[in-house]
Please model this.
Amino acid sequence: MIDPLIDADRIAVLTGAGISTASGIPDFRGPQGVWTKNPAAQAMFDIDEYVASRAVRVEAWKHRLAVPVWTMEPNPGHLALVELERQGRLTGLITQNVDGLHQKAGSSPELVHELHGTVRFVDCLECGRRIPMADVLRRLDAGDEDPACEVCGGILKSATVSFGQSLDRRVLDAAVAATESADVFLAVGTSLQVYPAAGLCDIALNAGKPLLILNAEPSPYDDEATTVLHTPIESTLPRLVIRP
Model:
């Protein structure tokens, strides 16, 4: 069942929130997901709502301060992809996640393509200045509910891609190149419902490459995949990357 992955010398990997749930970070769309439990929370991830409403920004910053990502550690699923890189078989680690756990696990930053940005930094929407998230968290701890840019006074926002914002073209191009240069495409912990990330599966399938899916829930691409596994990522992925 997993021979295409064992035999492949060049593998592109797409990861979603499911790979980080074992580290204690909730996903968005799963049964216990952030949006499943609180649909109103989606407003915090909409750029128009965020810019227009101070109340939304205040809630968004409260959310950022409370999320467990700051203390969470990579799990065996993340470490398995570090091993895949060590074997020299990883063409690119494309991720929809913003938690930075791939890099924390030891994946090379140049191979990690963060399609939806990163929570580790903050951008000013006015002057474009980028600063570490840790600097803003200190201001939140000090009581600043809606911190503004200290240079121009503009609205600050985590360096993640919100609904209504465009993906970074350079990151997307790198993800496409990694997919095109691979022998196999492996999707891990992603619902494959969000585009253009899910469209990378189409690129692989149209080129005749095997598609392997490891995810807790069914996805729209299951019928076209070579292999589909609905098993725990943290225990399954380490076994998948071991070569006999």
In short: The chain is about 35% helix and 15% strand.
